Amino acid sequence: MLRASTAIEGSEVDLQVVTSGRSTAGGLPAEAELVSFVEAALGDDTDAISATRNILREKLGAEALVDAAAVIANFQRVVVIADGTGLPLDKPIALITVGIREELGIDEYGSARHTPKLGFFMRMIGLGLNMVLPMIVKRMVK
Question: Would you list the domain boundaries of the chain?
C-alpha cells in the first residue's frame, strides 16, 4: 500500500529503511520520529513510548499519531496471527508481492517457509505486475 500511495502522490520512498537498520533517508516526513515511535511501541519501556508519542504528536499532529499507532497495532496483529497459525501467503498475494519481498529480504524470515515458492515464470510475472500496478492504481484514483 505504501508503494502504491507514494506512486499516486508522485513521490518516492526507500522501503529498504524497513529492514536495513538505517533509521532515516527513506523519504517520509518525520521518518526518524516515526521509526523511534515504532521501536518504542514494540518495546516495553513505557517512558520511551510516552516520549516518542509526544514528539510524534508535536511533529505531525494528533491525527497522524493515531494513524501511526493503528498501523503498528495492525501489523503486529497480522504478524502474530500469521506466525501463530503458520499461515502462508496465498498465490495471488505471493505473486503481486514478489518484488517487495525480494527487495526487503522478507523471504529470508522463518515464517516465509509456509509460503510456497514461486517458479521462475511466476516470479517474472509478479515482478512485471509490480511495475504496472502502481500506474493502474494511480489511474483508478484519478
Answer: 1-86, 88-142
